[in-house]
Amino acid sequence: LPAATSQVPQPAQDDWPLGLGEPALAFLRASSRVEMTRSYLHLHLALDNTGLDLSSMEAHYTVMTSGLLGSTELVVSDQNMVAVSNPCALDPDLAPPGTLLIHAYGCGNEPYDAWEGIPRGGAEYERLKKERAEVLWAAVERVVPNARARVKLELIGSPLTHERFLRRPRGTYGATFSAALPNCGTPIRNLVLCGDSVFPGIGVPAVAVNGASAANTLVGPVQHWMAMDKLTTDGRM
Predict the structure, then answer these.
(1) What is the DSSP string of the chain?
(2) What are the distances in angstroms from CA 101 to CA 75, 98, 153, 172?
(3) For the residues 30-39, what does the mean pLDDT come to?
(4) pLDDT > 70? residue 144
(5) pLDDT for 39-62, tens place per residue?
(6) What is the C-alpha to C-alpha distance for residues 127 and 232, in angstroms, rounded to an integer?
(7) pLDDT at site 17
(8) In angstroms, rounded to a whole number, what is the distance separating the alpha carbons of residues 17 and 192?
(9) Which of 213, 44, 66 is nearest to 140 (CA)?
(10) What mean pLDDT is predicted for residues 136-152?
(11) Cα–Cα distance, 235 to 237 (Å, whole number)
(12) Among residues of the chain, what percentage have pLDDT more than 70?
């Protein structure tokens, strides 16, 4: 699992709503101390697939650049675990004919500190992207040895990309699993939470689950049964 690096920026207590009871204030204080994971580095590639045996390729690979065995600190160390996704193994039509799509990324193990203060789009930023993405390229080349010679398109996403387009503080992947809120309920009246800071945590499937859980809390059991009966009547269940 991605290791924690820092806390969510904490609002000043003066900014909290007036009239909240102590349980609600305690909840806000605890939420402000949730630990964040590190960020991500992405390498998106479109490769010429000429001569590749696509039938022998897997949909997903995991490459441990520094090893899997040893301490937890080693496993979650910077740029150790790299995932290589090959979606065309599941559906070749995801790419134009003659093209293989590859997405390689560091699994929540890219430190924001390496990027902090560097203006996006400048020469230093582009140099750092190339430099930091070498570990991703090495992982891709474990799957497609001559991948660089096959490049049709190369895109590198950095923690600053996460920060800007996903509005993530310090480009974080999300809350650590141990710090995630246990459920969608809060001591604040009419406030229900969902998202990757709520159990079961980060990732699209997990967020979909807690989104459904949050929605279910907004209606009672009788309304649930009525909705299910209507779905059955409509032939949708």
Answers:
(1) -PPEEEEPPPPPGGGSPTT--HHHHHHHHHHHTPEEE-B--EEEEEEE-TT--GGG--SEEEEESS-SSS-HHHHTSTT-EEEEE-GGGT-GGGS-TTEEEEEEEESS-B-GGGTTTPPTTSHHHHHHHHHHTHHHHHHHHHHSTTGGGGEEEEEEE-HHHHHHHS--GGG---B-GGGSBSSS--SSTT----STTBTT-SSHHHHHHHHHHHHHTTS-HHHHHHHHHHHHHTT--
(2) 27, 10, 9, 25
(3) 81
(4) yes
(5) 889 999 999 999 999 889 999 999
(6) 58
(7) 55
(8) 16
(9) 44
(10) 96
(11) 6
(12) 86
d(CA 125, CA 153): 19
Under the banding of pLDDT at 50, 70 and 90, the label for residue 1 is very low
What gap in Å lies between CA 220 and CA 25, rounded to an integer?
27
Determine the pLDDT at residue 224.
83
Q: Residue 234 is encoded by which pair of tokens?
A: 């409509």
CB 35 within 8 A of CB 176: yes
pTM of the model: 0.74
- The torsion angles phi and psi of 131, rounded to 5 degrees, stand at -65, -50
- Token digits for 132? 């930091």
Q: Angle formed by the axes of helices 134-143 and 123-132, to 10°?
A: 40
